[in-house]
From TrEMBL:
Signal sequence annotation: 1-19
Entry-linked SUPFAM superfamilies: Methyl-accepting chemotaxis protein (MCP) signaling domain
Entry protein name: Methyl-accepting transducer domain-containing protein
Methyl-accepting transducer domain segment(s): 264-530
Gene Ontology cellular component annotations, sorted alphabetically: membrane
A GO BP annotation: signal transduction
Amino acid sequence: MKKSLIWALALLLALPALAMGEEAPAPLVKDETVYAMLDASGAAQNVLVVSRIETPEEGRYVDYGAYEQIAAMVSGVTPVVEGETIAWELPADEAGFYSVGTPSEAELPVTLEVVYALDGETVAPDALAGQSGRVSITMTVRPNENALQVYRDHYMAQIQLPLSMDTCANIDAPGASGALVGQTNTLSYTVLPGQEATFTVAFDAQNFSLSGITMACARVDLGGMMGLDVDELLEQADALTEGARALADGTDELVGGMGELADGLNTLAVNTRSLADGLAALETGLSEAMAAVTTLADGMTQLNDAMPQLTEGATAYIDGAQSALSGVDALADGLGALAAQGESLTEGVDQLTQGLSAMLAQMPAEQQAALSQQLTALSEGLTAYVEGVSQVSEQTAQLAEGASALTANGETLKAGLTEQQSGFSALNDGVTQLAEQTQSIPAALSELTGGADQLAGGLEEAAASTAETPEQAQALVDGQTELADGLEEAVSALTDIPALTESDVEIPSFVSEEHSVRSLQFVYTTAAISVPEPEEEPAPEEEELTFWDRLVDLF
């Protein structure tokens, strides 16, 4: 049902054309070549468009374009032009059908500017013809901002400059590739889509002439031309950019860690230096201590040797104390006897005084007084004697107690001296052994001090180097960041090159933006710089050339 309806609609749409007796146009497959004739300086003088239409079968072919004039390149075919629509009635021909026309507008994809100089002085092209000297030709190619964007994005220019080896020598052509065929050295330069470039050729000329500079502009698929899978390339570039960014981030973290390492090494170096200084001080102190230990060992030996004498002295001291104690005891006994005798004597004096009292009464007064005084003095002297003996007796008792304590202490001292002698002997042995064993310590400590000093120096150098490394590593981080930024810019630049990323874009006709063509190319040719020929006799007037004759002369 649906198929029947579609066929019915197609038949209804076709009825008006059938009613008018018009034949539907054949499909148009067209190739265009634009020829631009330039003057010797590169200014456009004339532009022609040669079109080729595929004609696999006889029929009516409709082309489109804005032309000032257009004609077939075969006789007997005339177009029907209505505005920008050109209709051709064409026979079948495997070679296709060619037409040539002058476009109403001609904005070429690039412009070419040529400047000539002779011996360093800029000269007009015509003035250079037939000259000799050092010639330079500077060619500048620029995108034409007035041309279609698709042309500027997808068309690559190739310049060819032919130099005759008969008239040119010592050629200097930076950036050119040359092809020598016969006596002609053709220099070639390439300019990528959307780029501006300037090339200079210098050479020694003799009777200079130039057949003309040719420049061809053709669509280019950069990815295909370089054998690149652009999508894969961009993916890899993105991955590389991400990797460079991650590397920069990781290196930045490494810089932070290296800063911490530098601080740690610096602290360790300071502490190790303090340790080395402390070991050096310890070495000095130990040397002094070793000297003191040696002195102590010598003193201990002398003291140990004197201990037997000290013990003997203590024994003699104890014996003397015991003898003194015995004497004190005898003295105490004697004093006791004296005290008893003194008391008896005192009592006798008292009795004598009482017995003499009757006699005293009978004596003269003077004798009585003198005798009484003598008796009183005797009594007082005896009393004082008894008191003195008593005091001496008490002191002798205290002396006896002291002598007894002295004897006991002497025993303790003797026991202590005996024990001390044993301890001094052991101490002497220990000090002597210490002195012997510590003899090797200074050398080991000196070696340890030297090692600590070397370690401190190494750590200081490591700390200094590590402290500088973060700055160097920061430069690496900056470089990696710049690399990542550059990769991003490169990827962005790649995506901005349509000739690289767009391989299936349609190319509009040079004479009609509304229609596309299968292929389109541009051929630029500058005017020749020729040496004037000698004047000859005027030739007979020739028949005026037709448009076709002039077109054929172009080829």
